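>> Question from a student workshop board

For tomorrow's exercise we were told to take the sequence and the ligand below, predict the bound structure, and bring the output to class. My setup keeps failing. Could a helper post the expected result so I can at least see what it should look like? The ligand is shikimate-3-phosphate.
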Amino acid sequence: MSEKKIPNIFLIGFMGCGKSTVAKELNRQFHMPVVEMDELIVKQEGMLIPEIFSTYGESYFRRLETKLLDGFSSQSGCVISCGGGVAMREENVALMKKHGCIALLTASPETILGRVEHGDDRPLLKGHKNLQDIRNLLNQRLPKYQAAADFAISTDNKAAFLIALEVYQQALIHTL
Ligand code: S3P
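>> Workshop helper replied:
Here is what the output should look like for this input. Compare the format with yours to find the bug.
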């Protein structure tokens, strides 16, 4: 019997939905190497994300994301924690589908606000850290997140290790 290999798992979803935490758990439980897209971009550019946005603009940052995704053709069995805007571009979704499966993590606006309240590393939330603005942006993005995803998992009031387990199981099911 041939053994099924776990594909790359792309974690998508809104800021604060737990992508980085779940990626770390997938590494801890299943030894999947983690790729943190935001971290890689910061390293590569030698600049923090708010600085990249203010110096070169958001579209420059979006092009960096696409270029990075394009480089995943040679990888397998990795978990890729995507920035919250990655699934907004059709070409990114096509690249993710080609190189793995796509897991959407969701959370309520209340949970998200609680998780993003502190810290100023997210330029899109500057001056918008309130429930109404988060709800608006989330509603705007949700259809695209849902259309891109192979499966979705809620992260509200759930321990990270359980979410990671669910993601792993679903990813296996989706490769059968
Ligand atoms: C963004 C999300 C951020 C980061 C950038 C833009 C977005 O990543 O890529 O600030 O457009 O939602 P996280 O989702 O990891 O916070």
